[in-house]
Design a protein that fits this description.
Blueprint lengths: L15 H14 L1 H6 L1 H20 L2 H11 L18 H51 L2 H6 L2 H43 L1 H8 L1 H39 L1 H6 L3 H54 L4 H15 L5 H22 L21 E8 L8 E8 L4 E5 L6 H8 L7 E6 L2 E2 L5 H5 L2 E4 L10 H6 L7 H10 L3 H5 L18 H14 L4 E5 L7 H15 L3 E5 L11 E6 L2 E6 L1 H7 L2 H12 L11
Parallel strand pairs: 3-8, 3-9, 6-7, 7-8
Antiparallel strand pairs: 1-2, 1-4, 4-5, 9-10
This protein binds adenosine-5'-diphosphate.
């Protein structure tokens, strides 16, 4: 298992040998998901075997006719089927004819069942893995998310997963079918005549060698082509986005030439890959022809000598044609699978990362909080060697409203992140109602804390749902009550679709103050005992600031409240003010007490009021 944020960058395995251990790891890791599709997989595997069996039997009716009707040999073993007289030529012919149709029907039906079944199982497995991955990703600690590149995570959850599914369906399943068929046919050939079988197989190594070599070259050219197309797109987008400069400097001709050159090269690459693929086809056909000729040559000798029948030869030649042809794809399929193992490994790497913050064993569901919060010598740092919070201790009584003030970077947001248990302290304890946060189940802890941030995030869903995200399952009455408390009900009912109005790109756009009031409604519907406000009125105009502040005062009534603010006017009515600097609470008390103390807070306050003298009357949030 990986500890936090150590996502390895994986190299693509170059061949199947490199890929095999990964493949094994992938199958083992996804055992539970695979096992859930057990029935489907069993049925489709059965289908696969029936399909291969029918394929193996395909040339046998013809052999029957040759050996018993057209060129009967005296020592041929007589055939027996109950109730049918096979010595009768027309009965035999009829049996052979119906077998051909029957076998084709059986083969195609079984192939259908196995292909559909396996594809479905693969899709279901991959879908489940994706759901697990998404759930896992959401639970990983913030410290992981801050370090991981968002793009990389998205790739893992989208393209890596897609590749896994595509390759299973386009390469792994056909490879499995072809391999089982090949093994089956080789088995039957050896059973019939080992010498002819050996002759037929002489070309196999040549075959694998040449197809691997050509496929590798195809890959190289294809990769070149993809790179060139990327470059072409970049040139085009650069030129188009800077078209003014291009035209002003008369660079059109030069850029056109550049583009044309890449364009032509790309065409050459396409032609080259097609040429190579056609070449591979030619090689395969030629090798099959050589094997057929060899088998024919030796086979006829054996027939003349009486140790083989013409029917045997027929079966052999037909097997050669059907068994070897799909191996053309072999190298390509193996390459695809090897590439996909890298995707599988990238997914597993991510799944194996343990969240730093997680439920400890025996964690309890938090009972409804009273809201007493205590920090005992809490130390914390994002990096091991820099302390952001340094032995922080304080106690806040239920319903007390605390303002956290002080210079930027002092550790105020970090403090509330710890309260939400987005991170765990490296030393000390944080207690709510006498229990350490780590004794509670995470979800039951966070459910009882509401937050309103400076720039509250609204989702691209309806206003109603945006509020309901605060307490999933809230009734319409609760949502409306919360919206009223947040001063939001009136403007929401004025929106085109009221509470059902969609927000976000395609929906209504709201002013900052309106967004903030929806966020407050979302916090209110949670009815939490503890509320965290992180600069909730920053960036609002005066009118909105009034509406939001009023809403916040209602929201925080009777709640233990932590307000982070750089605007000291918003904190004047707080029950308790912590002046935090460099991770320590340097001053604590009420506004009047701190002013009387006449130190940092007082100086800070005087500075702000001096600057803001021309502004409107101070608005207290608390
Ligand atoms: P405040 O809220 O008082 O402005 P913060 O708690 O946001 O202070 O930040 C305290 C210190 O922690 C700052 O030096 C900041 O650079 C650092 N910090 C904040 N978040 C992270 C993070 N995710 N990773 C690393 N350092 C961080």
């Amino acid at each position: 298992m990986n500890r936090e944020s150590t996502l390895v960058k994986r190299k693509r395995p170059k061949n199947l040998q490199d890929a095999l251990p990964s493949l094994q790891r992938i199958v083992e890791r996804f055992q539970p998901q695979i096992r859930k599709q057990g029935v489907l997989l069993t049925v489709s595997s059965l289908g696969l075997f029936v399909e291969v069996f029918a394929r193996l039997l395909e040339p046998w009716p013809l052999k029957l006719i040759f050996d018993h009707l057209l060129m009967p040999t005296p020592d041929a073993v007589p055939l027996r089927i109950p109730f049918l007289d096979l010595t009768n030529a027309s009965t035999l012919l009829m049996v052979a004819a119906f077998s051909i149709i029957g076998l084709a029907g059986l083969q195609t039906t079984a192939a259908y069942i196995s292909l559909v079944g396996m594809s479905l199982a693969a899709s279901r497995i991959v879908t489940e893995i994706r759901a697990d991955l998404y759930a896992h990703l959401q639970r990983l600690s913030l410290s992981f998310h801050y370090k991981a590149r968002g793009g990389d995570l998205l790739t893992r959850i989208t393209s890596d997963i897609d590749r896994l599914r595509d390759v299973t369906v386009t390469a792994a399943i056909p490879l499995l079918v072809n391999t089982v068929t090949l093994v089956g046919m080789i088995g039957v050939m050896f059973w019939m005549d080992w010498e002819l079988a050996l002759i037929a197989l002489t070309v196999l190594p040549l075959f694998i060698l040449s197809s691997t070599k050509i496929t590798k070259r195809i890959h190289t050219v294809a990769r070149e082509q993809r790179k060139r197309e990327g470059a072409m797109a970049a040139t085009a987008s650069e030129a188009i986005s800077a078209i003014k400069v291009v035209q002003a400097l008369s660079l059109e001709d030069m850029l056109e030439d550049l583009f044309a050159r890449d364009n032509e090269k790309s065409l050459e690459d396409v032609a080259k890959t097609q040429q190579l693929s056609a070449g591979l086809q030619r090689t395969v056909e030629l090798l099959v022809a050589i094997a057929t000729a060899l088998v024919l040559w030796r086979g006829v000798h054996l027939i003349l000598r009486g140790s083989a029948t013409p029917g045997d030869l027929l079966v052999f030649i037909s097997y050669l044609k059907t068994a070897f042809r799909p191996t053309r794809q072999l190298a390509k399929q193996i390459a695809m699978i090897s590439k996909a193992t890298a995707s599988g490994e990238r997914i597993i790497d991510l799944l194996d990362i343990l969240p730093d913050v997680r439920d400890k064993r025996g964690a309890i569901v938090a009972p409804p909080f009273n809201g007493r919060v205590r920090f005992q010598n809490v130390c914390f740092g994002y990096e091991p060697d820099t302390l952001i919070l340094d032995r922080l201790s304080f106690e806040v009584q239920p319903g007390q409203r605390v303002a956290l003030v002080g210079p930027s970077g002092g550790g105020k947001s970090t403090l509330v992140s710890l309260l939400l248990r987005l991170y765990d302290p490296i030393a000390g304890h944080i207690l709510i109602d006498h229990y350490d946060l780590r004794d509670y189940k995470l979800s039951s802890l966070r459910r009882q804390i509401s937050i309103v941030l400076q720039d509250s995030i609204l989702f691209g869903v309806s206003v109603r749902d945006n509020i309901a995200y605060g307490a999933l399952g809230a009734t319409d009455e609760q949502i409306i009550a919360a919206a009223r408390l947040a001063n939001a009900h009136d403007f929401i009912t004025g929106l085109p679709d009221g509470y059902e109005t969609l927000l976000g790109e395609r929906g209504a756009t709201l002013s900052g103050g309106q967004r903030q009031r929806i966020a407050i409604a979302r916090a209110a519907v949670r009815q939490a005992a503890i509320v965290i406000l992180d600069e909730p009125t920053v960036g609002l105009d005066n009118e909105n600031e009034h509406a939001v502040s009023e809403a916040l005062r209602r929201l925080t009534q009777h709640c233990t409240t932590f307000l982070i603010t750089h605007d000291l006017r918003a904190a004047t009515d707080a029950d308790l003010i912590f002046y935090i600097e460099k991770g320590r609470i340097l001053e604590r008390g009420t506004h009047t007490e701190l002013l009387r103390l006449g130190q940092r807070y007082a100086a800070f306050y005087q500075l702000q009021t001096a600057i803001g003298r021309h502004h409107d009357a101070p608005i207290s949030v608390l």
